[in-house]
Amino acid sequence: MFKKILIANRGEIALRVIRTCREMGVKTVAVYSTADAESLHVRFADEAVCIGPPPSSESYLKMSAILAAAEITNADAIHPGYGFLSENAKFSKLCEKHGIKFIGATSEMISKMGDKASARATMKAAGVPTIPGSEGLLETYEEAEKLADEMKYPVMLKATAGGGGKGMRAVYAKSNLKNAWDAARQEAFACFGNDGMYMEKLIEEPRHIEIQIIGDSFGKACHLSERDCSIQRRHQKLTEEAPSPFMTTALRKKMGEAAVKAAEYISYEGAGTIEFLVDKHRNFYFMEMNTRIQVEHPITEQVIDYDLIYEQIKVAAGIPISGKNYFPKLHSIECRINAEDPYKDFRPSPGKITTLHIPGGHGIRVDTHVYAGYTIPPNYDSMIAKLITTAQTREEAISKMKRALDEFVIEGIKTTIPFHRQLMDHPDYVAGNYTTAFMEGFEIQPETDK
To answer: Per-residue DSSP letters for 324-356?
Structure first.
């Protein structure tokens, strides 16, 4: 087992990793930018090293600074969390070169699955259902136009290096294809320095359902069942639940088997997620693979009683997994609490938290790094907490979430709590009748005095 792990991240996920390490008797090193000097992950780690100024490019994305911090503190492993360098093949390779274990996928695996066109070809070869689309990247606009005509509209243009909805355009008619092609390529190049595009058939009325998997260094993999992540805004997840209200026992078995087949075909090591689009007829198609821990991993932990960070660290240390597949025993819902104003198009709302009351009680979990008096910097992602409720049934989990949201008090900034509270009362959400297009018709109502 590792003696000391450096966490190359910030906020709640850094604190989450520190907690499991402490339970395992493993020492921790926090890294932080000057904007995060007062963050709880800095306070609770055994050691902390400042790695630069607030901009991510000069701190959390600066590989040389992070590796230097690992070397001066004698850390023998690095946990990247999610985001930042968690799916960076170069960083994984550099860790290996410096004799530091990267707790995540190998550089080869990240390269293979991080490029969406390559990942799709790999999954097709593995026998996993894929969305009809281009074989590899589209070289020219004329090639895109010809393929769209063959597949029939609507189609989806996607940047091969994309993420977070960047470089994606849905096209419903030929007359819109050229503008969408130009706009998607420009956005992809601006965000990722890569304007490579591919095309897929647009799946209408889709659910976004992902299967959590974990694989070891002996070629064995297992799945930990599914999460439904269909409630999204601009391709960013807002709330997730496990199990999916759309799932059947037969579909869960088929999707779980496909995910394990995918992981074992590529000899995947670590925690990862196989993401699928599921159409209204319950046909499922591989969308992408995330070679890291997910933001929404707690709901999987809650429904199967499984510490994913603990298992990640064990696998990285060369300990084999049992190979047993897991199925949900309970129901869990996660609401991402963001420092955003839902009444002003979810505009970011950084600033000082003047009052904070965190909900509690049976079946309530809150993963957060903030506290009363903490100032949320404007430099990073706006998520400040994850509120998770767990119960015997979906109906009970929703009831707990309503009560917990009512009890969750954050003053000094705007948050998405009012949005989530209204979502929990929406008849289509309550009925489990939603797709990835749900937010297109959702209008948040003005707040009323209680």
So the answer is: -----SSEEEEEEEESEEGGGTTEE--EE--EE
Residue 356: name the closest of 336, 376, 377, 371 by CA: 371
Of 250, 267, 265, 171, whose CA–CA distance to 215 is shortest? Answer: 267
Does the pTM surpass 0.85? The reply is yes
Burial of residue 135, with CB atoms counted within 10 A of its CB: 0-12 exposed, 13-18 middle, 19 or more buried: exposed
Pick the CATH number of 207-441 from 3.30.470.20, 3.30.300.30, 1.10.3720.10, 3.10.450.750: 3.30.470.20
> What is the residue type of 385?
A
Pick one of 3.40.50.150, 3.40.50.20, 3.90.340.10, 3.40.50.2000 as the CATH number of 4-103.
3.40.50.20
The catalytic site residues sit at 292
Question: Each residue's pLDDT tens digit in the chain (450 positions)?
Answer: 999 999 999 999 999 999 999 999 999 999 999 999 999 999 999 999 999 999 999 999 999 999 999 999 999 999 999 999 999 999 999 999 999 999 999 999 998 898 877 888 899 999 999 988 888 899 999 999 999 999 999 999 999 887 777 899 999 999 999 999 999 999 999 888 899 999 999 988 899 999 999 999 999 999 999 999 999 998 899 999 999 999 999 999 999 999 999 999 999 999 999 999 999 989 999 999 999 999 999 999 999 999 999 999 999 999 999 889 999 999 999 999 999 999 999 999 999 999 999 999 999 999 999 999 999 999 999 999 999 999 999 999 999 999 999 999 999 999 999 999 999 999 999 999 999 999 998 999 987 654
- Residues 268 and 436: their CA atoms lie apart, in Å, by 28
Q: Contact, 224 vs 255, CB < 8 A?
A: no
